[in-house]
Amino acid sequence: MNHNMKSIIKSAALLLTLFGLGTLASCNEDFAQAPLDQPFPEIGDGTYQNPLQTWQAHLGTMPGDRETNWVTGYIIGYINSDITNTMKSAVIADGETPALKNNNVIIAQIPYDEEVWESTGYSLDDCVTVQLPSGSSRQAVNLANHPDNFNRQVSLRGTTGSKYMGVYGVRNAYEYNWGPTGRYEEPIKDISTQYFCDFSTSHDITYYTERGWYKFMEKGGLTGFSVSEYNRVCYVGMSAYYGTANGGPYINWIISPEFNLDETEQKTVSFRTEVSRKVEGTELEVFVLTHKNPLSCEPVKLECPISASDNVWVSSGDIDLSEFSGKIRIGFRYTAAKGGDGNSSDFYMTDFNYGGANPEDWKVIDPASIGTYRKATTLESGKKYAMVFDDVYATQPASESSAYGRLTVEEVTFTDDYEQEFRLSKEDAFTFTNVEGDHWTIRDAYGKLIYMDNDASHSTFQFGSQGSLSDLDCSWIITEKNGKYEMKSYFRGYYLEFNPNFMNVAPNSDRYTNGNRAVLYELVEE
Asked: What does 286-351 look like in DSSP terms, one character per residue?
């Protein structure tokens, strides 16, 4: 394998001579009859359990005419759009030379190996371009910030069947999951009488429109909606940021699924809102609708608290809907007189609750994501552990998009009287790798290193690629004392400790150390 980054300039010729696009795109969803001349034995249907293979996405496949699909492949490069927005500027990036662009990647059916590709005839002409929109997928998947993602298998959820950078690709890949499958997607529930949504299941707004939410652009030519996360709070955002100062007004709606008040016992709705950069001329209003198109009915405005102060979450409280009957929707109308940064506000909404739903009943949990953790007697390199403090609080990783900060915790319940075992998400496991002697690196479930950088003004963890620092610089000196593990940053001398006042795990200096060390519980692979 050539270990230097190499620019490959080739035309992107689709393999339509071998595979009829129309035939493949019209196959039924389970692909009972695969194309006779398919280049690889694997074939997917676009679901999270069975993503489309790269070769299928390369042909513009849309199973059952479904536009949004999961696609899996190996990250082997990116498009350098400084040259041209086509595959003519495709760059195979092995990680030794930093990539220049973070807004796209190229995925291949097989990992890049120069000899293997040449012997099999595989080339960039067979690869797929992936658009990484702003958000968690871009921050985690791109090669510019994470050169070690080279040749790593990833599954991405985005729009197939349309061209990106001149060839059929994956557009707006808001969701990703490392490995050959996508993120768990729960079957659609009956939501006519009770419903709760905190937008934590997916960062792809298409996921929610598939489950009854509706976007409507009334005026201004801008659909300014997205799903985001900050400080582990997920929300749908409404914005005219990408509008222009002379292009308004912008009027956009995000509308809830349909509910049946005649069958609902508790006739209430509630939610939380927050505003950012509050300026005059921007407002968020809430209405009861009898049609998903607000112009096809007479919206009735609901009087309720809406956030009016920057970065303050405000609860609407339970809003009484008993004066209404039949099938309704709740519509959030965002209005901005002008667009662009500084001319309009951003509004956020989360914790939407209809009918007095219990939020715990609406958590989407992949049964396969829960693992058994057993008290560790030794620390072994390459194994995964949960860090437990005060015999009850297990450390959780920061959000996938976080580059720095502290770690949150979750209370765990032990399955026996001896506090030897509990059940918890596998994503709460951290991989400990021995570097040298008692020096260890710690990575979270997203593959991000947890370390401290060399900026003396920083008193938080860094999450992600180590940059110019060595493995040793990013290591923790770990020593076991009476069943607990002291973890001290080799680079900065800070201790990894639990702070009960703030209910998080943070680095503390010698001056402020509290001695609250972790007990390690090994994830038992099942």
From this structure: EEEESSSSGGGS--EEPP-----SBT--EE--PEE-TT--SEEEEEEEEEESS-STTTS-EEEEEE
Buried b (16+ CB within 10 A) or exposed e, 498-510: bbeeeebbbbbee
- Considering the domain architecture, whether residues 335 and 393 belong to the same structural domain is answered as no
Q: Give the mean pLDDT of the chain.
A: 88
CATH of the domain at 488: 2.80.10.50
Question: Same domain for 352 and 430?
Answer: no
**In a shared domain, residues 437 and 457:** yes
Domain final position from 362, 391, 416: 362
* Helix (H), strand (E), coil (C) string for 116-160: HHHHHCCCHHHCEEEECCCCHHHHHHCCCCCHHHCCCEEEEEEEC
Coil, helix or strand for 63?
helix
The tokens describing 314, both together, are 């405000």
Q: Are residues 413 and 481 in the same domain?
A: yes
Domain that holds residue 63: 6-178
Q: Are both 225 and 334 inside the same structural domain? A: yes
Whether 68 is in a domain gets the answer yes
Task: Write the secondary structure of 185-200 as one string of H (helix), E (strand) and C (coil).
Answer: CCCCCCCCCCEEECCC
Q: Model-level pTM greater than 0.90?
A: no
Domain identity same for 81 and 131: yes
Count how many domains the chain has. Answer: 3
The verdict on 376 and 339 lying in the same domain is: no
Q: Which long-range contacts (CB under 8 A, 24 or more apart) does 359-363 make?
A: 359/196, 359/198, 361/196, 362/195, 362/196, 362/197
Q: Say whether both 17 and 166 belong to one domain.
A: yes
- Confidence band of 74 (pLDDT split at 50, 70, 90): very high
Cα 131 from chain centroid (whole Å) = 14
Residues 355 and 260: their CA atoms lie apart, in Å, by 10
Q: Please give the backbone phi and psi of residue 260, each rounded to the nearest 5 degrees, phi first.
A: -115, 100
Domain limit, last residue, from 310, 339, 362: 362
Task: Report residue 138: phi and psi, to 5°.
Answer: -60, -45
Beta bridge partners of 421: 374
Maximum distance among all Cα pairs of the chain, rounded to whole angstroms? 72
3-state secondary structure of 432: strand
Q: Is residue 190 part of a domain?
A: no
User: What Å distances lie between residue 345 and 281, 305, 307, 312, 341, CA to CA?
Assistant: 9, 17, 11, 13, 8
Give 233-276 pLDDT, tens digit per residue: 899 999 999 999 888 899 999 999 999 999 999 999 999 999 99
- Do the Cβ atoms of 314 and 273 come closer than 8 Å? yes
The H or E element containing residue 61 is none
Instruction: Say if residue 103 is exposed, middle or buried (CB neighbours under 10 Å; 0-12, 13-18, 19+).
Output: middle
Q: Which residues touch 457 (CB under 8 Å, ≥6 apart)?
A: none
CA–CA distance, 473 with 451 (Å, rounded to integer):
8
What's the pLDDT tens digit per position in 168-206?
A: 999 999 899 999 999 998 888 889 899 999 999 888 888
